[in-house]
């Protein structure tokens, strides 16, 4: 058992005694006034309310005890929601780069897909991309934020094979949907211009299989009907030419309504027209009536407020007191209503967070470990446990907990876990000079992963540069070790008084990024030459 304000518990007897004395003084004054009026009235007044001072004193004790905030026990809180199984597939073939719709077919599809994911928050949504191949970027998940980040990063260069193979994405989308809850309806939403390089019969056969298996297909058309060239741009977005076929003729592409209509008919699905401005809204309205399955989320709450118990005692005493002194009791009831409202406002308390705020990191780590073992708090508790282990120097606990938290689907939590993992390896490298290189490599890898989530984070950039400089070939003076972050927040490190500044670290990292861009451009050119040699359609 614990109390929010323990001093009020000690003060409760004093408050009760004061209230009882005041009530006794008031009763004596009332009896005296009645006796001055007449002896009969005095006897009648003395006979009423003999136990009122004691009762009101006990009421005051109970009310003060309620304000002290007694807490004990735990309970599991379950929240219910209903979700749909839906997979979004986006065509990222080069034909989607055509700019017959602004800014391009692919950018419009990405914008509409982001809106759809935002509007369907709470549903289980998966993400796929396809061109010459099809890949699953995300299984069915309720993390809309992570899905939007993945959609923002879609680019044709993600694919090693160009062209557009339509039938495989329908088959793989079906497999992904059948991995979800069998109770809810299954919906496959495909954003494409319809330009496919596999046979129409194979595509229609895959679409008919969707209909037989109960998968609802929604095709979202992109592009215009008039032929348009496919621009080729460098990594900075500068136009350097147009896509050409093996005979050096400029390739033209247009929206293939004939293919899209045949596929929609084969699956008994719906085709969302390309000229429609709000395609995401149309898809949202279509799936609004589909069947959703209930899903429950459980969270454990510790140290539950029990202030209602002393409040109940006080209310019972007042009800009994009402028989003799009704007006005084009603006034006290109003006081208890306000006390009860304050007690209801008290929520569950996290002992681990309190211990952290008080600077008792080892005790906080113990509480976080208990919560993890009880399955409470999810990835956030894992991150807090790992950070606490980092602060107290328990590298085994810190590494295991942060590794699990780094797999979270929440981008902000994943970034903080990756940041602190890099910090852990930096410290291990400084502590164990004989095995410093593997730890520095791990730190560099973790900070690179973190910067993919937050490219502008200056502290992560600085720590990445620090790990690079400490490598045997990096040279340079060693910098002081960073400090670990607190519960619920990642660590940060200020630049050391000597060595490179943050601006210099930015310059080094920018030069590294420029080198990576040049390498990527060379790979793109080599891939393009290989495509031209094969003579295969790569759009």
Describe the model.
The protein has 539 residues and is an alpha/beta fold. The chain has three domains: 2-70 and 306-344, no CATH class; 85-291, 3-Layer(aba) Sandwich (Rossmann fold), CATH 3.40.50.410; 351-500, Serine Threonine Protein Phosphatase 5, Tetratricopeptide repeat. The protein has helices at 6-37, 39-47, 52-67, 105-119, 144-152, 166-177, 200-212, 257-266, 279-287, 308-321, 326-344, 351-357, 361-373, 378-392, 395-405, 411-431, 436-453, 458-470, 502-534; strands at residues 2-3, 70-83, 85-91, 124-130, 134-141, 186-192, 215-221, 228-229, 231-233, 239-242, 252-253, 270-272, 293-305. The strands form four sheets. Strands 5-4-3-6-7-12 form a six-stranded mixed beta sheet, sandwiched between helices. Helix 7 (200-212) links the parallel strand 6 and strand 7. Helix 16 packs antiparallel against helix 17 (436-453). The radius of gyration is 34 Å and the shape is elongated. The protein starts with a strand and ends in a 5-residue tail after the last helix. The model is unreliable at 343-347, 474-500 and 531-535 (pLDDT under 50).
CATH topology name of the largest domain, in short, is: Rossmann fold
State the distance separating the first and last CA atoms.
Answer: 68 Å
Percent range for helical residues? 40-55%
Number of domains: 3
- In total, how many beta strands? 13
Number of helices: 19
Overall geometry comes to: elongated
Query: What is the CA-atom radius of gyration, in angstroms?
Result: 34 Å
CATH A-level architecture of the largest domain: 3-Layer(aba) Sandwich
| Main sheet record | 6 strands, mixed
CATH superfamily of the largest domain: von Willebrand factor, type A domain
CATH class bucket of the largest domain: Alpha Beta
Structural class: alpha/beta
Strand content: 5-15%
Q: Could you report the average pLDDT, rounded to the nearest whole number?
A: 78
């Amino acid at each position: 058992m614990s109390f929010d304000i323990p001093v009020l518990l000690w003060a409760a007897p004093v408050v009760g005694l004061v209230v009882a004395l005041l009530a006794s003084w008031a009763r004596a004054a009332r009896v005296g006034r009645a006796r001055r009026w007449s002896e009969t009235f005095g006897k009648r007044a003395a006979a009423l309310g003999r136990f009122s001072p004691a009762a009101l004193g006990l009421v005051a004790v109970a009310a003060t005890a309620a304000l002290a905030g007694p807490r004990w026990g735990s309970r599991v809180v379950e929240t219910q929601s209903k979700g749909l199984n839906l997979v979004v597939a986006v065509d990222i073939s080069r034909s989607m780069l055509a700019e017959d719709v602004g800014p391009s077919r692919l950018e419009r599809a990405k914008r509409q897909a982001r809106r759809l994911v935002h509007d369907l928050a709470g549903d289980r949504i998966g993400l796929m991309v396809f061109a010459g191949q099809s890949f699953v970027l995300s299984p069915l998940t309720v993390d809309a934020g992570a899905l939007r980040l993945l959609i923002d990063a879609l680019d044709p260069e993600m694919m090693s094979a160009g062209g557009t193979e339509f039938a495989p994405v329908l088959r793989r989308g079906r497999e992904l949907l059948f991995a979800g809850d069998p109770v809810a309806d299954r919906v496959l939403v495909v954003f494409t211009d319809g330009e496919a390089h596999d046979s129409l019969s194979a595509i229609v056969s895959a679409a008919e299989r969707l209909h037989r298996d109960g998968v609802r297909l929604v095709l979202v058309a992109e592009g215009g009907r008039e032929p348009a060239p496919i621009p080729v741009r460098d990594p900075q977005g500068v136009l350097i030419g147009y896509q050409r076929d093996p005979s050096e003729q400029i390739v033209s592409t247009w929206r293939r309504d004939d293919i899209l209509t045949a596929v929609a008919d084969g699956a008994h699905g719906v085709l969302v027209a390309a000229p429609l401005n709000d395609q995401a809204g149309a898809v949202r309205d279509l799936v609004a009536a589909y069947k959703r399955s209930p899903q429950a989320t459980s969270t454990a709450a510790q140290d539950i407020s029990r202030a209602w118990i002393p409040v109940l005692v006080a209310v019972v005493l007042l009800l009994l007191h009402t028989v003799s002194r009704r007006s005084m009791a009603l006034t006290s009831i109003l006081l208890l209503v306000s006390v009860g409202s304050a007690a209801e406002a008290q929520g569950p308390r996290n002992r681990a967070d309190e211990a952290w705020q008080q600077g008792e990191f080892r005790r906080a780590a113990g509480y976080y470990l208990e919560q993890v073992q009880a399955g409470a708090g999810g990835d956030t508790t894992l991150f807090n446990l790992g950070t606490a282990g980092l602060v107290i120097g328990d590298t085994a606990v810190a590494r295991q907990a942060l590794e699990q938290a780094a797999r979270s689907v929440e981008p902000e939590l994943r970034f903080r876990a990756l940041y602190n993992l890099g910090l852990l390896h930096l410290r291990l490298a400084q502590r164990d000079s004989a095995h410093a290189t593997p730890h520095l490599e791990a730190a560099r890898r973790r900070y690179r992963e973190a910067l993919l989530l937050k490219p502008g984070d200056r502290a992560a950039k600085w720590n990445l540069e620090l790990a690079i400089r400490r490598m045997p070939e990096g040279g340079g003076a060693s910098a002081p070790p960073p400090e670990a972050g607190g519960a619920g927040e990642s660590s940060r490190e200020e630049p050391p008084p000597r060595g490179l500044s943050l601006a210099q670290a930015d310059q080094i990292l920018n030069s590294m990024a420029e080198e990576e861009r040049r390498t990527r451009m060379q790979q793109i050119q080599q891939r393009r030459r290989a495509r031209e040699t094969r003579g295969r359609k790569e759009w």
